[in-house]
Amino acid sequence: MLSGDAPLPVDDRGVAYGDGLFETVLVRDGRPCLWDYHMARLQAGCRRLGIPMPERDVLDRLPAQAGVGLLVLKLILTRGSGGRGYLPPEAPEPHLRWQCLPFTANERNWREGVRIRHCVLRLAIQPALAGLKHLNRLENVLARREWSDPGTAEGLLCDQGGRMVEATCMNVFWRRRGVLETPGLDRCGVAGTLRQALLERLAITEVEADPRILGEAEALWLGNSVQGVWPVIRLDDTEGHPLVEWQLTDIHREFQNVAQPLLGYPALPLTGTS
């Protein structure tokens, strides 16, 4: 099993076919945030793809190697080499690699909120891969190429049926008619670890939703396990024209303040409005 900085061979199936999984973990002074959620998702992905899961004690030792401070640990697990074309080997020997890099959260986005837009690209519907953080992320790459304006923080993605799924690298949440909602991810999309933790702590309903319902939302947020939760203050169409705008209120802060401590981030002060 390859690890650390060892180079992957040219015939590695992750390099050739995206045949593998990855996790991106926020680490504070050697202590990983939402670690059990990351390990559960990795194990679920290994089970579904038929890739042997590395020994848990091997994985558990990695965050401590990240060092002091706030860092991001990226784990990459591929099926390894071998097989014949797309046909995988009967007894795969996985390759595991990792990298630790310093990280600084975008606190301004927490405080002031972000502007986002709709993407033209539509995600393919593939239930066999839905929820997994697999290595084939070309759809996200193409979607992210749709804008270069630094004032646009993210792009919303729908599936081929026009249903909301996620942003290019974050999950989506909103409150409508007093109810917290998030897109169901049984057809496509990545089931984020912060999303899972919030589903267990708050009454969030998984729904099939046309993006037009966001015009009825009292609040909209994006979140992931590295950046935390960003409130959305403006949603644009695919050409950058504004569709919906929101003023930051206590509704935004209360949701953020459930999520932020899960990552060791500070709570945000209430605005005094609701």
Automatic annotation (TrEMBL):
The gene is pabC. Its cofactor is pyridoxal 5'-phosphate. SUPFAM superfamilies: D-aminoacid aminotransferase-like PLP-dependent enzymes. Homodimer. Pathway: Cofactor biosynthesis; tetrahydrofolate biosynthesis; 4-aminobenzoate from chorismate: step 2/2. The keyword Lyase applies. Pfam families: Aminotran_4. It catalyses: 4-amino-4-deoxychorismate = 4-aminobenzoate + pyruvate + H(+). Belongs to the class-IV pyridoxal-phosphate-dependent aminotransferase family. This is Aminodeoxychorismate lyase. The lineage of its organism: Bacteria, Pseudomonadati, Pseudomonadota, Gammaproteobacteria, Oceanospirillales. Keywords: Folate biosynthesis, Lyase, Pyridoxal phosphate.
